[in-house]
Amino acid sequence: MHSYPDASAVVRALAPDEPVILNRPHAAARAARFFVEKFPGKSLYAVKANPSPELLKVLWASGVTHYDVASIAEVRLVRATLPEATLCFMHPVKTRAAIAEAYRVHGVRTFSLDTHEELDKIVAATTNEAGEPATDLSLCVRLRVSSDYSELSLASKFGVDLVDAAPLLQATRQVADALGICFHVGSQAMTPFAYVQALERVRAAIVDASVTVDIVDVGGGFPSIYPGMEPPPLEDYFGAIHRAAESLPVSYSSELWCEPGRALCAEYNSMIVRVEKRRGNELYINDGAYGALYDAAHVGWRFPVRSLADDAEGVQEEDFAFYGPTCDDADYMEGPFSLPAGIKAGDYIEVGMLGAYGAAMKTAFNGFGQAEAIESSDEPMASQYRGDRRDPRHSDNVVSLR
Ligand SMILES: *Cc1c(COP(=O)(O)O)cnc(C)c1O
């Protein structure tokens, strides 16, 4: 893949008519090494955040050996891309055929569940032809926890309630070689306390059920940096999780896992778009709600932007909203996105931090969605991993944990 020093160099060389996705393998590698070295346990990459095979190879080369997959297509993709990777099928609702193929064809041994029905399904799909149940399953019971500290809730859809957890943990213990408890605090958790609170619920579940637990999996939710969302440094999260996990009654015998999606890949991509029309402070650009800007349209996510015009430095900026290229009124991103007041049709914009739930969301709706991928060697627009982060709220956020 051709590499350019930055987005401006791409525009000068190509003046692209279609959006361009910029890949920053160095940024993904840095994030992966950070988790591998500093998280006090094992880090599984949550593939749904960005399933690009190039990215998967970068993460593997940087030491990420375990992958959280949620569909049989993700199982096949990661197996084909990384033949030696350990795959964990962490969607609590799977088809019997998907479980059987994952187990028999792709060597998957770790599955999550949040009901007795799913447990029965996993046992049936992994029992051999002689009627002998599998003896090598790692089964993680997904506990429902609060999403109060996260920007995107994952609390309502999955997870067994604490009051119903004990019988499910006991039944799972009977058939599992290794028993795990997992949860997800919601995406972009803005304080480490989210994990501390969830681990308190794990403690209650373990005590209630009186089972030994081999895996405590704190899920995803580790944040990245976006306009208006400056989380504390990730070390604070790791420290708080470590202390809370150490105090669990099973800490001497259990492994600690996490499943970062966003935090491993947000910095991997940005996108170059072109302004096709301006109407007041609304810019009609060539990517949008059906492209990489799904979250900007649907949950009002604010991605960082910068003008790539030569004279953009130091000029006065104004707030803009974006329209995407399709004919749908919903193809609208309110922002606000701060850009030079004089921006006009034909100008290019770089939208940053699109590696997680951005580049992966592109559809071909209405004939749009093409985008070339090009490598860029510059820094992402923001980084959790540069080692120079000083967050003014840092001390406020951790004080309650100590
Ligand atoms: C989506 C998801 C993740 C990744 O979440 P992030 O907020 O991107 O870190 C991890 N685990 C499970 C089960 C998920 O569904």
Automatic annotation (TrEMBL):
<feature type="compositionally biased region" description="Basic and acidic residues">
    <location>
        <begin position="386"/>
        <end position="396"/>
    </location>
</feature>
<feature type="active site" description="Proton donor">
    <location>
        <position position="327"/>
    </location>
</feature>
<dbReference type="InterPro" id="IPR022657">
    <property type="entry name" value="De-COase2_CS"/>
</dbReference>
<protein>
    <recommendedName>
        <fullName>ornithine decarboxylase</fullName>
        <ecNumber>4.1.1.17</ecNumber>
    </recommendedName>
</protein>
<dbReference type="GO" id="GO:0005737">
    <property type="term" value="C:cytoplasm"/>
</dbReference>
<comment type="similarity">
    <text>Belongs to the Orn/Lys/Arg decarboxylase class-II family.</text>
</comment>
<comment type="pathway">
    <text>Amine and polyamine biosynthesis; putrescine biosynthesis via L-ornithine pathway; putrescine from L-ornithine: step 1/1.</text>
</comment>
<dbReference type="InterPro" id="IPR029066">
    <property type="entry name" value="PLP-binding_barrel"/>
</dbReference>
<dbReference type="InterPro" id="IPR022653">
    <property type="entry name" value="De-COase2_pyr-phos_BS"/>
</dbReference>
<keyword id="KW-0663">Pyridoxal phosphate</keyword>
<dbReference type="GO" id="GO:0004586">
    <property type="term" value="F:ornithine decarboxylase activity"/>
</dbReference>
<dbReference type="InterPro" id="IPR009006">
    <property type="entry name" value="Ala_racemase/Decarboxylase_C"/>
</dbReference>
<feature type="domain" description="Orn/DAP/Arg decarboxylase 2 N-terminal">
    <location>
        <begin position="35"/>
        <end position="266"/>
    </location>
</feature>
<feature type="region of interest" description="Disordered">
    <location>
        <begin position="375"/>
        <end position="402"/>
    </location>
</feature>
<keyword id="KW-0456">Lyase</keyword>
<dbReference type="GO" id="GO:0033387">
    <property type="term" value="P:putrescine biosynthetic process from arginine, via ornithine"/>
</dbReference>
<dbReference type="Pfam" id="PF00278">
    <property type="entry name" value="Orn_DAP_Arg_deC"/>
</dbReference>
<dbReference type="InterPro" id="IPR002433">
    <property type="entry name" value="Orn_de-COase"/>
</dbReference>
<feature type="domain" description="Orn/DAP/Arg decarboxylase 2 C-terminal">
    <location>
        <begin position="274"/>
        <end position="351"/>
    </location>
</feature>
<dbReference type="InterPro" id="IPR022643">
    <property type="entry name" value="De-COase2_C"/>
</dbReference>
<dbReference type="InterPro" id="IPR000183">
    <property type="entry name" value="Orn/DAP/Arg_de-COase"/>
</dbReference>
<dbReference type="Pfam" id="PF02784">
    <property type="entry name" value="Orn_Arg_deC_N"/>
</dbReference>
<dbReference type="InterPro" id="IPR022644">
    <property type="entry name" value="De-COase2_N"/>
</dbReference>
<feature type="modified residue" description="N6-(pyridoxal phosphate)lysine">
    <location>
        <position position="48"/>
    </location>
</feature>
